[in-house]
Structures are given as structure tokens and as C-alpha cells.
């Protein structure tokens, strides 16, 4: 008999009819001669009532094919939390149970509503943990965020590009770069799609990419990974204020799309609705003045926001602007990568910006230097060798419009949409100092 998806079992014409479903046993509850199973597939979850003689072989995570009759549940047995909560699949003497793949004994109980395990266990048994509905749901949200980002970038007229991650030089500066043995040469894992997205501006004018980026972060924090997914946009014929409009537009569209698509998941996680009030914009120095005035910490000489500043600024924006976002601009030029354009009005500060969301930076970007000679100067002032960037520099040598862009960290966005405690929970297979799937210290 042809497979019916679990969610389709609740269609009217299925009631009282025989169906076959394929899926995974999630839980088993024995009641005398009857066993209740929760079985899930990609569409949903359904309760199955099976006679003990047929169902006794079944255990959690067994992959099964079950044929039975769809019954309407008695009113007092309806489960409103389940899309199929008013029906069940009844597998009696005429029904059929087939085990497609038998699961060995599980290392932990998968039947609880929340998989309350320590993070190392969640990661040591990642493929199993990911099967749990609540963990899987994180990546349904992530998928909706990717979709929302793509839609928003396409609405801006951007062409999707795919760029290399094996590169000849560090793009973002600093020591946080992985060297790789590339035949008899040295190469690096790309810290961001930055240079390539810029190189493609004269070709497509507006581009976007969803790309892997590698950061040799030598510290273990709850907000850093060594392998990150960046969602980048780069646009030509644009200037600073316009870029702020665009980044805020993409952020709002992406998050609205994901939260609309995943309403049930967000409710299940007990997440407050995102506050989409007018996003306040502050320069770094204005933000630091505000931190002093409102929160009593004097960080006015710092070249960046501290993690506590980011938390406090978001608290302030929520209270005074009903916004879960804040845009912070004009970071010191010296603290920014070589491609960042200094503000012509005050070159000590740059035309750069970060977007904060619920207490953390989820995006950064800038107006870029598009003048070839200025770019050479900027590289030299940072001790960089322009020869290592020959291909990149051709872009500007042969004419590049005023341009700029921005980049969201997918895992950071996912983490803060769902209020997760650790960024590792927002990556299917997180990479950090201690783990490349297997634990490096074991
Ligand atoms: P930046 O280095 O700020 O900018 O990165 C952009 C966004 O990527 C995410 N991110 C990270 N997430 C987790 N772990 C990390 N180690 C990590 N590093 C970065 C953050 C961050 O806001 N090329 C520029 C962007 C641009 O100018 O367009 C860049 O990479 O969410």
C-alpha cells in the first residue's frame, strides 16, 4: 500500500480508511494488551494504537512501516498540542507492523518533551539528538531564516553567487586565520566571502551569498564558532545611509519570514514576539555616552562595544523604541579591516556598522574604499602586502562604483531568535577549539 504522510492522515476522506505510514517510533507506552506509540515522519507525529502481539518488538527510534485504520479519538482523548491530535492510527489484527530498520538501545531517553542533556552529550550523539523534535525544530527555524534572507536579498535585486573558501591571504586581518597545506604552498581558509563579493560588484552590481567562513578563535565562548555560516550582501552604486536602510530591511524581512513560518515552534520554545519598532541608530561614541548615562559604565575610550554594552543597548532600545534591534555606526577606522571606508568628515572613524539583536552583534558591514590608490594606502598602513591581493585589486584598478555591504552570522541569528544559551546549539555540527565532530582531546 502506498505511503501516506502523517499530517495527511487527518484529511476527512482518510477517516475510517486504511493507511500505511512510514516513520520513527518516538515513544512507547504499554497499557496491558495495548501499546501506544508516537510515530513521526517529516510532516508530523501521530499516535498509534497497536495490539501487544504486533507491537511488542518496537522500541524508540525503530524505523517502521505501519498499516492500520484512521480513527477519530473520543473527545476526552483529543490532544490539542498535536496537529493530528484528534485522530489515531489503529493497528489491530488486520493491521501490519514492519520494522524497516531496528535501533539499538539508546544512550539516553528520547521520549521527554525537552531533551534535557548537557551540551557535550548533545554533541557526542549529535545525529541522534538531532532527531529529537525540539532539537530538530531549531534547524527548521534556521532553514526559514536562510529562506527569508534569500528572499530579502533577491527583493533587493541581488544575484546569488558562490565563492571560494580556499584563499591566498587573510581577509579580515588579525591572527584568527587557519593556514592550510596547499600542495607545496601555504593557503588559508577564508575568514569571510568579503573580497569575492566585492570583486563581483562590477559584474552583477548587487550580489548575495550564503557562505562558510572560518575563524581561528582561540577562545571558548558561548557566541563564537570556528566555522560560521555568513549571509552576505554587497551592493554597488550605493552610499552609507542607504546601506543602513538596506541592512535593516533585510534583517526585518528575514526575521518576519522565519517567525511567520515557525509560529508553532516559537510558541513551543516560549519565545516572546520580536519587537519590530523603528530601529535606533547611534554612533559608537553616542552609544558609549548612553551606556555611561543609563548604565553607569564609562567605556567611552574603547574601540568596540563590550558584550555587556551590547546587552544594555538592546535593553535600552527595547524600552525606549520597542525595538529588539540597534544599529551602531562609526567604529574607529584603525580597528576595522583595510577595506572599510573612513568617514571623509572625520577619518578617525569609519563608515562601518553593526546590527545588534537581543543583546548580541548579529551583523557587521561598511561602506568600502572603492578608490584604488586609497585602498593601496590602507593596505600598506596595516602592513599588508598588496601583491598578495593582486586579483582583488584589479577590481578597483579597472573601475568600481561606490559600494558597500554587510554580513549576518546565521548561527548567531538562530541562537537569539530561539533564546538558546550556547551558539553550538544553533549549528548542526558545530566546530570549535575542542571538536571537529569527534572530541579532539579524547
Ligand atoms: P564580521 O567579522 O563582523 O564581518 O562577521 C560578520 C558576522 O558573522 C558572525 N560571526 C561569527 N559568528 C560566530 N562565531 C564567530 N567566530 C563569528 N565571527 C563572525 C557575526 C558577525 O556579525 N566581512 C565582514 C562583513 C562585511 O563587512 O560585509 C565580516 O566578516 O554575526
UniProtKB/TrEMBL annotation:
The GO molecular function terms of this record are: aspartate-tRNA ligase activity; ATP binding; RNA binding
Q: Which GO terms describe its cellular component?
A: aminoacyl-tRNA synthetase multienzyme complex; cytosol
User: Where is this chain primarily localised?
Assistant: cytoplasm
Give the matching NCBIfam families. Answer: aspS_nondisc, PRK05159.1
Write out the entry's keywords from A to Z.
Aminoacyl-tRNA synthetase, ATP-binding, Cytoplasm, Ligase, Nucleotide-binding, Protein biosynthesis
Source organism per UniProt = Candidatus Daviesbacteria bacterium GW2011_GWC2_40_12
Name of this chain's protein: Aspartate-tRNA ligase
Q: Which PANTHER family match?
A: ASPARTATE--TRNA LIGASE, CYTOPLASMIC, ASPARTYL-TRNA SYNTHETASE
The UniProt entry, under Pfam families, shows: tRNA-synt_2, tRNA_anti-codon
Q: So what family is this one in?
A: Belongs to the class-II aminoacyl-tRNA synthetase family. Type 2 subfamily.
Domain Aminoacyl-transfer RNA synthetases class-II family profile, first and last residues per copy? 139-430
InterPro entries in UniProt:
Aa-tRNA-synt_II, aa-tRNA-synth_II, aa-tRNA-synth_II/BPL/LPL, Asp-tRNA_synthase_2, Asp/Asn-tRNA-synth_IIb, NA-bd_OB-fold, NA-bd_OB_tRNA
Instruction: State if ATP-binding is listed as a keyword.
Output: yes
- Compartments (UniProt record): Cytoplasm
Q: Which domain of life is it from?
A: Bacteria
Gene Ontology terms describing biological process = aspartyl-tRNA aminoacylation
